[in-house]
Amino acid sequence: PSMLGILGGGQLGRMFAVAAKTMGYRVTVLDPDANAPAAQFADVHLCAPFNDAAALKTLAQTCAAVTTEFENVNADAMRELARTTRVSPSGDCVAIAQDRIVEKSWINKAGLPTAPYLAIESVEDIQVELSPYLPGILKTARLGYDGKGQVRVSTAEEARAAYANLGGQACVLEKMLELKLEVSAIVTRVSSAQMAVFPVAENSHENGILDVSIVPARIAPALAASAQQMAQSLAEALDYVGVLAVEFFVLADDSLVVNEIAPRPHNSGHYTLTACLTDQFQQQVRAMCGLLPGRTDLLSPVVMVNLLGDVWKEDGREPNWDVLAEAPNAQLHLYGKKQARPGRKMGHFNVMAATADEALEQAEALKDTL
Ligand code: ATP
Ligand code: MG
Ligand code: MG
Fold this sequence. Notes:
The chain is of the alpha+beta class. It has three domains: about 5-85, Rossmann fold, CATH 3.40.50.20; about 115-175, Dna Ligase, domain 1 (2-Layer Sandwich); about 180-370, ATP-grasp fold, B domain (D-amino Acid Aminotransferase, Chain A, domain 1). The protein is about 30% helix and about 30% strand. Strands 10, 11, 12, 13, 14, 15, 16, 17 and 18 form a nine-stranded antiparallel sheet that branches. It has a five-stranded parallel sheet with strand order 3-2-1-4-5, with helices on both faces. A four-stranded antiparallel sheet has the order 6-9-7-8, covered by helices on one side. Helix 1 (about 10-20) links the parallel strand 1 and strand 2. It is globular. The protein starts with a strand and ends with a helix. The site of one magnesium ion has 2 residues, from loops.
C-alpha cells in the first residue's frame, strides 16, 4: 500500500493517521516529540525537527503524498517536497494562512468581507488615524492561535502601547465587531469540479478556545448556504487542494464576515467523525491522493464538546468517563496525551440527538457530570 506523509503529529495528525490506516494506506509522521499523539498510529515516526533535511528527504522519497496538520510549517520545505512528491495544500496556500496580513488581503481579493483592519508592518503604519479600527483587537500577524498574541484595545494610545509591547512584530489592528454568532464551514477541494462542503457548524468559545460546536448551526438555511458558498469561492480563489476551514462572524444584521482560515481539518469539524457520511480526515486523505471528495451529508444533529486539560482533577486523575460510556448517543474521543494542562486539548465528545438544541442540552449536562 502507498505511504502517506504528514507534517505534525498532534491530535489532527493522529485522526488523519487513523483515517488513512483505515483506508488502507501506510502513514509516516514527522514530529520532534517522541510522545506525539499520532506516533502510536504511524507506521513510521520520523522523530526529528520539522526542518530536518534528512527527515524531509525521507518523506519526499517514501511518500506518495504529503500533507500537514498545522499551518506553521516551513512553507519552503513544503515547496521543496513538492518537487518530488504530491503536496497538499500547497506551500503557497499554507504561507497565506500563516500571516494574517496576507490572509486578509486574499480573502478581500476573493471578494469576501473581513472586519475593517489595519496592517501594521512597522511603527510608521500605526501613526495613522486609528478610529476606524477602535475599539479593536491587535493580533500578531503570525503564530497566534487559541486567542494567543491578541490584545484588546479601546484607544489609539492603548493600541500603540500594545504594539510596542508585542516587540514591534507585524500585527493587524482589527475592529471589534459585535458578534451574533460564530460559524465555520469546511470545504474539501480537489479541483474546480471536485469540491464538497460540510454542514455549517455554530461555534462558541471559552477564553479564546473553541468550547462547543453545534450542527446544524442555528441560523437561517440561506445564511448557512451562503457561508458554504463563500468557503467554496475562497478555496477556488486560492486554487486550494485539500481541506480548508473558514471561520466566520455572523453580525447583528445577519451578514457574514470571514474571520480567518485554517489550511487543514479544524477543531470545529470533529463532529464529522461521528455525524457525517465522510469525515474531515477521510476528506484530507482523499484530497491529497487526488480522489473525489466523499459525500458530506449530516446523518444526525450533533454537538461536539472540547475536553481541555481543565476538566482533569486537581491531582491529575482523569474525569469520570463512565457517564459518557453510559450515554448511548455520545462518543468519546481521547487524543492519548499524557500530561493534562489547563487549555490543552485532550479530547472531545460528540452527542447526537433529534435536534441540535436537544444534543446541546444533553452535551452540557454530560460535561457537568465529568
Ligand atoms: P484559532 O485558535 O481559532 O486559530 P486565533 O488565536 O487565531 O484562534 P481568532 O480566531 O482571530 O484567534 O480570534 C479568537 C476569537 O476572538 C474569535 O473566535 C472571536 O470570538 C474573537 N474575535 C476575534 N476577532 C474579533 C473581532 N474582530 N471582533 C469580535 N470578536 C473577535
Ligand atoms: Mg487562528
Ligand atoms: Mg480562530
